[in-house]
Amino acid sequence: MMKTFTGIAASLALLGASAANAQDIKIGAVLSVTGPASFLGEPEEKTLKMYVDEINAKGGVKGKKLQLVVYDDGGDANKARTFATRLIEEDKVVAMVGGTTTGTSMAMGPAFDDAQVPFISLAGAVVIVEPVKKYVFKTPHTDRMACEKIFEDMKKRGFTKIGMISGTDGFGKSMRDECVKVNAKFGIEILGEETYGPRDTDMTPQLTNLRAKAGMQAVINPGFGQGPAIVTRNYKQLGINLPLYQSHGVASKQFIELAGEAANGVRLPAAALLVADILPDSDPQKPVALAYKKKFEEATKQPVSTFGGHAYDGLMILVGAIERAGGADSKKIRDEIEKTKGFMGTAGIFNMSATDHMGLELSAFKMLEIKNGNWALAD
Fold first, then answer.
1. HEC assignment per residue over the chain
2. 283 domain residue, yes or no
3. Residue 56 is part of which domain span?
4. 363: pLDDT confidence band, cut at 50, 70 and 90?
5. pLDDT in tens, 122-172
6. Is position 369 within any domain?
7. C or N: which end of the chain has fewer Cβ atoms within 10 Å?
8. How many domains, the chain?
9. Rounded to the nearest 5°, which phi and psi values hold at 322?
């Protein structure tokens, strides 16, 4: 009898645990934790896990624990699409924070939109949210904004004739296209263009072609991953003594490490997070950026990157929406994400609307320059 009673007790305990788990709010994340975009995806994963644990330790959201389901797509769009379907159909998540790259985000977006499950992407291209998809949002500044910030800086410095070398990945191609759309507005003429693939290991031929363009005053490199670091090293090796601009897709200390001394002098637009320590006390972003930076670096023993910051912003926007929605109804959560106003994140102040599923202004972007192997506010 004792064995039978014990068996029944164990079964009841399991049923109780299952019932408790059923009350959890299940959210998903598909990230590029490994592969060519791992320096973006790894800090994103660490950030999400760190803050979900913290939220749960404080009692969860509306008294319910968050259950985070993470899949690693390795930067592969097909895998990302498969995992998105799994999150929707098998894991039954109520929302998703993830999508490390533009390519993986674009592959997953339609699945979440069709299933009416909110998806907050952590990737940079404007095509993720333009045209607006009802259930798709994003937290990083767009590639169009990066072009505008760079061209704004070029105009200030008197540069009007430039070259461009861009990656053929989803982000690189999208940013290239956005730069071509807005360059004339800033009086910038693109004298020559070159491209490189995600697996290319030497961009010397393309840069040699650009160097031959008479009158060129600067070069811009839309891209992310290891490609921009190779471009930067080859640029230095060829002795091209013109300003080099990178995108916010390289806003990680790993880029500086990969590019080495050649990174010094490179300019790029990025979130205030990278320079949180040296922001003026009057900057409203400073307290949030400093708090995240301190927590991330103490927990991981790694330098902070904007990519982990994008994950923080996405998670906190989602948690705020769940609180306002009063529970785990995906449609209500979507509506509340869209109503996000005045949220101060690591990337700036988010004010979303039915026509803007990102909600950041260009003023939230900082122009940085790499000096002595570290980030500095550009002069």
1. CHHHHHHHHHHHHHHHHHHHHHCCEEEEEEECCCCCCHHHHHHHHHHHHHHHHHHHHCCCECCECEEEEEEECCCCHHHHHHHHHHHHHCCCCCEEEECCCHHHHHHHHHHHHHHCCCEEECCCCHHHCCCCCCCEEECCCCHHHHHHHHHHHHHHCCCCEEEEEEECCHHHHHHHHHHHHHHHHHCCEEEEEEEECCCCCCCHHHHHHHHCCCCCCEEEECCCCCHHHHHHHHHHHCCCCCCEEECHHHCCHHHHHHHHHHHCCCEEEECHHHHHHHCCCCCCCHHHHHHHHHHHHHHHCCCCCHHHHHHHHHHHHHHHHHHHHCCCCHHHHHHHHHCCCCEEECCEEECCECCECCCCCHHHCEEEEEECCEEEECC
2. no
3. 2-141+289-364
4. confident
5. 999 999 999 999 999 999 999 999 999 999 999 999 999 999 999 999 999
6. no
7. N
8. 2
9. -60, -45
